[in-house]
Amino acid sequence: MTTKLEILEAAVKNVLGARIVESKSALGELTVIVSPLDYLQVMLDLRDSVETSFEELIDLCGVDYSSYGNDIWDGARFAVVTHLLSIKHNWRLRVRVFAADDDVPVVASLIDVWNAANWYEREAFDLFGILFDGHNDLRRILTDYGFIGHPFRKDFPVSGYVEMRYDADQKRVVYQPVTIDPRENTPRVIREENYGMK
User: Fold this and answer.
1) Kind and range of the H or E run holding 97
2) In Å, how far from its chain's centre is CA 168?
3) Mean pLDDT computed over every residue of the chain
4) Is the pLDDT assigned to residue 29 strictly greater than 80?
5) Could you write out the DSSP letters of every residue in 114-158?
6) Higher pLDDT residue, 147 or 29?
7) All domains in the chain, ordered by first residue
8) Which residues contact 64 (CB under 8 A, 6 or more apart)?
9) How far apart (Å, rounded) are the C-alpha atoms in residues 169 and 1?
10) Which of 93, 151, 179, 183 has the highest Cβ tally under 10 A?
11) How much of the chain, in percent, has pLDDT values that exceed 90?
12) Which residues lie below 8 Å from residue 100, measured CB to CB, with a gap of 6+?
């Protein structure tokens, strides 16, 4: 007997064919990796094909793979992961695309395919610095317009680069370099023989 996941995998392979770089099914979910050159057309085909009918984009996020797990990652650094939903077929699909250039990560925008991609792409730009080619309003959405850097990148310092505070003498908000002295916190562990027992 064919499972629902196998039917989904066959439908996606029928629609995308050789454009699938890699396909994985784990924990009841299917993930396909596609090339950044094919990304926009792949998404259009997944939406418009009767076999797949992914009417909804339910999530889009950026990922920084500069260090993955406990090892150094040897592939492309930045990826965009998109989650799609087909109401007609009642199934979900994860599509991952890696940006071709680590220094200036660029991926095609999906706002002309699914309008819901708008703020998700702005968030990925703001937090990871991933650019979306064709996005008509790509600007910061969560950080301040004067913010320097992208805080979800793994090489972004934990304390940031600048801090802002209100200066009573100048009667305005001022930006200055971070003044937090790095320190190591060692937790104090107290062990009692009968802790938690009555």
Assistant:
1) strand 91-98
2) 40
3) 88
4) yes
5) -TTHHHHHHHHHHHH--EEET-TT---SSS-TT--S-TTSTTS-T
6) 29
7) 4-141 (3.30.460.80)
8) 77, 78, 128, 152, 153, 154
9) 76
10) 93
11) 64
12) 36, 76, 106
